[in-house]
Specification:
Oligomer: single chain
Strand content: 15-25%
CATH architecture of the largest domain: Alpha-Beta Complex
Structural class: alpha/beta
Family: Belongs to the glycerate kinase type-1 family.
Largest sheet: 6 strands, mixed
Protein name: Glycerate kinase
Helix content: 25-40%
CATH superfamily of the largest domain: Glycerate kinase, domain 2
InterPro entries: Glyc_kinase_flavodox-like_fold (IPR018193), Glycerate_kinase (IPR004381), Glycerate_kinase_RE-like (IPR018197), Glycerate_kinase_sf (IPR036129)
CATH topology of the largest domain: Glycerate kinase, domain 2
Number of strands: 13
Organism: Shewanella avicenniae
Number of helices: 14
GO molecular function: kinase activity
Shape: elongated
Radius of gyration: 22 Å
Number of domains: 2
Length: 384
């Protein structure tokens, strides 16, 4: 019997690999002769780097870079192992690792000057190591600069009408007159960028980066207007210099306009994060011949069907007609939608009422106990 275990992390308690290991150990008590294939996965958000590195036998690179407010931060990215269809010449970068909102206290947030420069430094480091395929996860940023800081770190110069380099930050883009790419990193044209993006916002306007995501990054109403105009000007200048006009493309407004930046200057291709991850870890190939697939995440609810990890795993397994069981830290409103989508059963792991801190602290034994009970019922059903 072959059982594939492909969960996301249980946030704040267990990594995706730890979840897979607990489920495998519990099932092995009842099915000692079964083959267990552990495939930690994610949906392109937080934890994607660690999950993909664990799933492919890759490794983590640690690097100090420029944080969103200009001070150094300790960031990291992953290089995939050979056990991936993308191969071991692929890096996976979460922009939040360098330019994340979590680096900036609420009282210090200022999207007029915050920058994606550190994300560009991670990309540059990967290119210097010979990487020629990069998976870039958007989201969780403190920035609203359209990816300007990223391309500045990669050697492109953003100049005002006197030929002076602009400072970093979204507000400075209002003075942009020229984009000088003569010193761009030489490997950029050789690198393919797959961009994990799960929003469809355009760059500007009432659904744009500034209006929708700016306030959570500290933008006042006046700042939103200022930043929106600056991003529109950025797009105008880029178009006038022969770059593509990506401002209205779905996802251009993601992560403070980072979607626009990667499409315009890096020729990046935006796709749902869960689809990129499933391809990168070779999930379809690993499910081939399986008798059961087990997936899960910290919470399964009505949002799970909209591109979360369990839904991505379910889609892949359904293509091969393999049954899927979902295990979650807890079940929320709408969790039954996963059953309507074809999941065989869903379970939570909390055995009794408890506060959140206790539930997180006991996640490992609770998961093992729940998985063991599921395995026992599965074995009973197979004997019938």
């Amino acid at each position: 019997m072959k059982i594939v275990i492909a969960p996301d992390s249980f946030k704040e308690s267990l990594t995706a690999l730890e979840v897979a290991e607990q489920i495998a150990a519990a099932f092995a008590q009842h099915l000692p002769d079964a083959e267990f294939v552990k495939v930690p996965v994610a949906d392109g958000g937080e934890g994607t780097v660690q999950s993909m590195v664990d799933a492919t036998g890759g490794h983590i690179i640690h690097k100090s870079v420029t944080g969103p407010m200009g001070t150094p931060v300790n960031a990291h990215y992953g290089i995939l192992g050979a056990d991936s269809p993308f191969g071991d010449n692929t890096a996976v970068i979460e922009m939040a690792a360098a330019s994340g909102l979590h680096y900036v206290p609420a009282s210090s947030r200022n999207p007029l000057i915050s920058s994606t420069y550190g994300t560009g430094e991670l990309i540059c480091d990967a290119l210097d190591r010979g990487i020629r395929q990069i998976i870039l996860g958007l989201g969780g940023s403190a920035t609203n600069d359209g990816g300007a800081g990223m391309i500045q770190a990669l050697g492109l110069r953003l100049l005002d009408d006197e030929g002076n380099a602009l400072p970093v930050g979204g507000a400075a883009l209002a003075k942009l007159q020229q984009i000088d790419a003569s010193n761009a990193h030489p490997a950029l044209s050789q690198c393919q960028f797959d961009v994990a993006c799960d929003v469809d916002n355009p760059l500007c306007g009432e659904r744009g980066a500034s209006a929708i995501f700016g306030p959570q990054k500290g933008a006042t109403a006046a700042m939103v207007t200022q930043l929106d105009a600056a991003l529109a000007h950025f797009a105008d200048i880029a178009l006038s210099q022969g770059y593509r006009d990506a401002r209205l493309t779905a996802g251009a407004g993601a992560a403070g306009g980072m979607g626009f930046g990667v499409m315009t200057f890096l020729n990046g291709k935006l796709r749902p994060g869960v689809d990129i991850v499933m391809q990168a870890v070779g999930l379809a190939e690993k499910i081939s011949g399986a008798d059961l697939v087990i997936t899960g995440e910290g919470r399964i609810d009505g949002q799970t069907v909209f591109g979360k990890t369990p839904m991505g795993v379910l889609r892949v397994a359904k293509q091969q007609q393999v049954p899927v069981i979902g295990i979650a830290g807890c079940l929320g409103d709408g969790a039954e939608q996963m059953l309507a989508q074809g999941m065989t059963a869903i379970f939570d792991i909390i055995p009794a009422a408890s506060d959140l801190s206790l539930a997180l602290a006991n996640a490992k034994p609770n998961l093992y106990r729940a998985a063991s009970n599921i395995a026992a019922v599965w074995c009973l059903g197979k004997r019938q």
